[in-house]
Amino acid sequence: MAKKKSQQADNLQELESALTKTEQFIEENQKPITYAVGLIILLVIAYLVITRFYMQPREKEAQSQMFMAENYFEQDSFNLAINGDGNYLGFLDIIDDYKMTKSANLAKYYTGISYLHLGQYDDALDYLNGFKTKDMLLGPIAEGAKGDARLELGDNQGALRHYRKAFSMNENELTTPVYMMKAARLLESMDQLEDALAIYREIKEKFPESNEGQNVDRYIARVELKLG
């Protein structure tokens, strides 16, 4: 019992010593600490002010300005979507005029897809690479579009890398079997038949209700025939 009391006393003494040192440090560095705290407060206030009175209004304005470009995109009028029609802004204008907004980031996606449809594959890659998202559908679609552009440029290995990333990002019924099929067909065209067959069989097993899953048997049979 005496040993336990002695240990408690030692712990209390160590705690008091630590508190004393902390108090001494604060007293000796009171001005720098005050300045540092004040700076942090100012930075937080500045961030809130910029967000509330600058970024949010710009975001709202950008969304309004991009409305017509999105309409042109949906109508497959890709040149008008990219460059505007003289009355309404195109995606490139949104990117330039509303930097750092979510709309400008989304405009990079639309611009990349538009250039892909127009056959301007290097431009498509430039804008798709600049697009950042955590969206479970847009992410794989953008990655798959990079694969399409790489394929058109004759870069089979680059295309395959993007297709693999696209179907591995967020497994779902909508995008995953699409990019698995693209990867498998590309592998088959490159005579990497066993790898292609493995993906075809995975589509059949995991996504039997998808369009790809309902049609994959003929691909499996064709590869099995090639393999003998």
Average pLDDT, rounded to a whole number, is 86
Query: SS-based structural class?
Result: mainly alpha
Which range best describes the helical content: under 10%, 10-25%, 25-40%, 40-55%, 55-70% or over 70%? over 70%
Helix and strand element order: HHHHHHHHHHHH
Our count of helices gives: 12
Could you give the distance between the termini?
84 Å
Question: Uncertain spans, ≥5 residues at pLDDT below 50?
Answer: 43-54
Count all strands and give the number: 0
Our estimate of the beta-strand percent is under 5%
Number of domains: 2
Broad shape: flat
Radius of gyration: 29 Å
Major sheet, described briefly? Answer: none
Structural account:
By secondary structure, the protein is mainly alpha-helical. It folds into 2 domains: 17-131, no CATH class; 133-228, Serine Threonine Protein Phosphatase 5, Tetratricopeptide repeat (Alpha Horseshoe). The chain has 12 helices and no strands. It has helices at residues 2-28, 30-65, 67-74, 78-83, 91-97, 102-117, 121-130, 138-152, 156-169, 176-189, 193-206, 211-227. The radius of gyration is 29 Å and the shape is flat. It starts with a helix and ends with a helix. 32% of the residues are buried. Residues 43-54 have low confidence and may be disordered.
